[in-house]
Write the structure tokens for this entry.
Amino acid sequence: MNIKSVILAFILLSIPFSNVLAQQQKINFIKLTKDGRLTYLSDAKGDIIPDFSNVGYHQGNKEIPHVKVVKELIPNGVNDQQQIQEAINEVAKMPLNKDGLRGAILLKKGTYEIPGSININASGIVLRGEGLATKLVATGTGQHKLISVNGDGKPKEVPQSRMKIIDAYVPVGAKSINVSNANNFKVGDDIMLYRSGTAKWIQDLKMDQIEPREGLVQWKAEDYHLYFERKITAINGNQITIDNPVVMAMETQYGGGEIYKYTFEGRISEIGIENMLLQSAYQSETDEDHGWDAVWLNRVENAWVANITSKYFGFSCVNLASYSKQITVRNCTSLAPKSKIEGGRRYSFNNDGQLNLVRDCSADEGRHDYATGAKVAGPNVFYNCKATNAKADIGPHHRWAVGTLYDNIITDGDINVQDRGNWGTGHGWSGVTQVLWNCEARKVTVQNPYVSGNNYAIGIKAEKSEGRLKGRPDGNWQLLNSKATVAPSLYIKQLEDRTKLK
């Protein structure tokens, strides 16, 4: 080896290997700055990969608390559901403390038989077990929820607060918008970022031309209005800055966008379900007349489900419904679901809400293990999750979910972001601003819709698939069968960058 080779080898060994890889990789959408932060590279329209870090319990700005126990129960095998429900109702009458909490109900070890549903309908209540030693069994028939967390009502627009966005194009990733008049808004206001569905958009997306079959419904503009919950963080003249980014461009050619203030008086908060085993009784491997959701949440914000193991439910371990917001689901496991293996079953971790985080979870024998439904308004994140013995695919399931990050998801099945065509009653384009980052799967499909945005596959270890329907625009692929070392986890890196700025 000559002296130049020795010097070069010494220099290379002196540089951290991860930095060498980062320098070698050229990602068109993200790169590291000199101070080690991510910077985002826009496309011709100005769209960037958005910041997904403001999701989960208090948007990641507050740790999940350990709440003081105010009530303890032991199973008696006679009226377990009644005594748990009575304890919840009793704690619901206690005053909220400064953090919005009332207290925790500790279910001591043993088996609790629950023929119906346990309902939590008030804020500040934690239902806690002693790990796998605390077992709740859904003994009743019918497709019911074992634990139901649900507030009341729906978002209500504040009269005379609606204002038109005047930007001709608000790109994906933007956190500032310009309105015709910001005088009636203030920092801290809850606002709805509204994007109307239009006939031109449906036509350009070709969702009025789905291949016909019995039961199919072509998309209609009035069914595709989108509502994104945001909070105002700054106002400068008529420019309003919001806490979470735009995840689907606001385009004047498709009706543009509006904002308005809203209230949601019936939504509850500060709920925790943690540390227990949830099971459903069942009669056979394909039984459909038993517990369907282990934990179901709706009309709730800033809540958590942690260290839950579910067995034998027909639909989900955790199901986040459309009005769930800023929920963290962490360290949960879905095992051995019992149902037919076909549509509408085995969605192990399902998210139809917004600003939610599902992390460090696992699923076995599910179908759509980490999935979103129709018109889901992001950002949302699935991070560091696994699926084994998968019976179907992971990803946005149907009808235009917006703004989801699938980060370090590992499955022995497939991950798909595609035009699903006439599956179901017309699933069509499953989503936009869907980002797959350092995922592993058997096969992966990522297509871009004809209009209104992009989907990304970065650092994917899988066979690249064309998808169900050929001839669709290809998604944005980089580092196929390699790792994105610029950020081993996009979510974690974005969170680190954001918290360092505070």
Notes: Residues 80-92 form the longest helix (13 residues).
